[in-house]
Write a structure and sequence with these properties.
Growth Hormone, Chain: A, mainly alpha, about 425 residues
Length: about 425
């Protein structure tokens, strides 16, 4: 049921570990990198609520409700992954980032609703924890792929082509294109979806409301948002204002502090980028390992307590990166952050799915993505200024700011009511 999520997260893993270095290879200024990451949150903000509302109103006897969107997203993503490492200019890479994120968002949002559709309240903690496993596993493969390709003779030294992007990065993206299509097709052909209880009434209602009613659905869902979902806003705000700093600046911090290479043309920058992939792999291994234990921990200390605990551990992981310039300091810190990542990918979605109507599962999952992307947009607008002032133009200080944000998110978790019943409509 969640196997297709592995391929989608392989794509996210490639993006997260490689886009900042790719931008630097193409001549981007370090302070401007957050603005170049705007593609992800903006496309998510626009696409996910629409896809959620549309999939709520979709039914095909052959393809089901959510699966058509899995497949469309996978095709778009695969094309973008093939083209991305062949970008000849910064504007081309930035444009492909928009297309890549559109495909990833089209495919990802229905997978969240898919779990809510098929599992009851007691099963959802395990279901979303399993998605955390596939997120961690898929992104681990993406992060390790350059190192694995190195075993077969591909090296991290930039090639002599126009964009100077190493061959092992290019082949990692090509493999990702195949992996996404293969894993999504596996889910599409091996899982079934439940039709609406009254299929004729469902189709009649859709025909009466018309295509444009999808926008009314989003507006009505916003007005009638359940209390638990509103309370999750601050948890998600602090989490997702801080977390993008990791993808934007971790590899650059490692190159600067562990390999003494603050510029892309310096010896050691490629090694720093490669070690960044290793630390992201450790981060994702930590994520999928903790996913097995999250349901049992949540039973003992509640879901919100579990989330608060692991967010705090993640904050400590970021703070620990100040303890030295050895590359292993970053590795050990990312293992702790990976524990938080496992909870971030599961606990909020369990809390949300238990508070909303099954009829609106897709649209609310899409709107909930706004709780992720709005903080990211704020991050990417403000960080270019803060980076040169508050953060002293040091990428490691950006990671410390991420740690403070996770601590604040953990505190906010205690203000979430996890016992609110689902809406009836």
């Amino acid at each position: 049921m969640s196997f297709g999520f592995l391929g989608i997260q392989y794509g996210f893993g490639l993006q997260q570990a490689n886009m900042s270095p790719i931008y630097r290879y193409l001549g981007a200024d370090e302070a401007a990198i957050p603005a170049l990451w705007l593609a992800g949150p903006v496309t998510g903000l626009l696409i996910q609520p629409l896809i959620g509302a549309m999939s709520d109103r979709t039914w095909s006897n052959r393809w089901g409700r959510r699966k058509p969107y899995f497949l469309i997203g996978a095709v778009i993503t695969s094309i973008a992954l093939i083209l991305m490492p062949n970008s000849s200019s910064l504007w081309m890479a930035a444009s492909l980032m928009w297309i890549l994120d559109a495909g990833l968002n089209i495919g990802m949002e229905p997978f969240r609703a898919f779990i809510g559709d098929r599992l009851n309240s007691e099963q959802r903690t395990l279901g979303f924890s399993m998605q955390s496993f596939f997120v961690g596993f898929g992104q681990t493969l993406a992060n390790l792929m350059p190192a694995l390709l190195g075993i077969f003779g591909l090296v991290m030294v930039a090639d002599a082509g126009a964009n100077h992007i190493p061959d092992m990065v290019k082949y990692s993206f090509y493999i990702g294109a195949f992996a996404i299509l293969a894993s999504v097709l596996w889910t599409v052909y091996t899982t079934k979806e439940y039709p609406p209880e009254d299929l004729e009434a469902f189709r009649r209602e859709n025909a009466e409301k018309g295509v444009l009613h999808v926008f009314t659905e989003i507006w009505d869902a916003l007005r009638e948002m359940p209390t638990t979902m509103k309370q999750l806003w601050w948890v998600k705000f602090f989490t997702w204002f801080g977390l993008p700093l990791m993808w934007q600046y971790l590899s650059l911090a490692i190159a600067r502090h562990a390999f003494n290479a603050p510029e892309a043309n310096m010896p050691g920058f490629e090694e720093g980028n490669a070690w960044g992939g290793i630390t992201f792999a450790a981060f994702n291994v930590s994520c999928f390992m903790i996913s097995f234990f999250l349901p049992a921990i949540a039973k003992k200390i509640t879901r919100r307590g579990t989330h608060a605990l692991f967010l705090t551990i993640g904050g400590i992981g970021f703070f620990s990166m100040l303890l030295g310039n050895d590359k292993y300091v970053f590795l050990y810190g990312m293992i702790l952050v990976g524990l938080a990542w496992g909870s971030i990918l599961s606990m909020p979605y369990v809390l949300l799915s238990d508070s909303v109507s099954p009829k609106r599962m897709g649209v609310y999952m899409g709107i909930f993505n706004g709780f992720i992307v709005v903080p990211q947009i704020i991050n990417m607008i403000t960080i270019p200024f803060l980076y040169k002032t508050l953060l002293g133009s040091d990428p490691r200080n950006a990671l410390v700011l991420a740690g403070f944000c996770l601590i604040l998110a953990g505190v906010s978790s205690f203000f979430v009511n996890e016992n609110q019943p689902q809406q009836s409509e």
